[in-house]
Amino acid sequence: MPPGEVLTEQTALAGEPRTLCWISDEPPAPQLVAALRGDHRRSGLWPLLLCDSDEVYGDRCTVGVVPPEPLEHIDRWRPPDVMDRIWDGLVQADDELGPAYGPEVLTPFDTACPGPAPGGNLLADPDILANQQLPRFIDDDTRLAMVPARYGADVLTVLGWSGAANHVSRTAGLSAMVRSWERRFGVRMLRLGPDRLDLSVAAPPQDAEHAAKVAAEHWTFCPDRIVQETGSIGAYAQEIRGRRSWSFWWE
């Protein structure tokens, strides 16, 4: 392994702060990340790219900002329940301001949550695809983290990540959704930043109807990405149809 350091909680109130992950001092070689991904089942460590151009490495805002939730909290969430709860909150009418999001954003859906999409058909091996995509996600501001996590999706919760704090207060529900995407769409967690997330996708939606249902899930996961870039669920669905990477950002 290259030189690096161990990162711990920044929010520990008493006692020794918990260890969150190990992080490299320099950008990693894609070949190293790929090899470590292949060793994940044995090591129990998920190789994750961390990016942050604004913080000093070793004292990052990406990890440990909020106390990490227990992993069992992820198991308590069913993706349909996560989606329903967030969808209902986003479309709930305010007496003075009206709905937070109107029909122009929800198209082709209405205020009723459509529920999770069916899984896609694998177009590639998920791990091979993830490794192939690594080079375009590594630059001078990227570091390698080794995170103790059974699933890549769990790193959001294990690291005490706060990038979506303006959308949801805790991350266990988001981890539950990404776990489901790992199963249904061959997703692999590639890169995490203070307010962004990048995934590889080996089984993306291929037709318009399927893409729309997947886009509806993404809207509950990260409304900023859809509303501020494409303007509607329907327009975003066209963007992700057949696309082998998904990127999200939160304000």
Core attributes:
251 residues, 11 helices, alpha+beta, single chain, 7-stranded mixed beta sheet, two-stranded antiparallel sheet
Any overview of this molecule?
- This is DUF4253 domain-containing protein.
- InterPro entries: DUF4253 (IPR025349).
- With about 250 residues, this protein is of the alpha+beta class.
- It is built from eleven helices and nine strands.
- The strands form two sheets. A seven-stranded mixed beta sheet has the order 1-2-6-3-7-8-9, sandwiched between helices.
- It is globular, with a radius of gyration of 18 Å.
- The protein starts with a strand and ends with a strand.
C-alpha-based Rg, rounded: 18 Å
> If helices are DSSP runs of H or I spanning 4 or more residues, what is the number of helices?
11
Quaternary class: single chain
Arrangement of strands in the largest sheet? 1-2-6-3-7-8-9
Beta-strand proportion? 15-25%
Structural class estimated from helices and strands: alpha+beta
Task: Note the run of SSEs as H and E.
Answer: EEHHEHHEEHHEHHEEHHHE
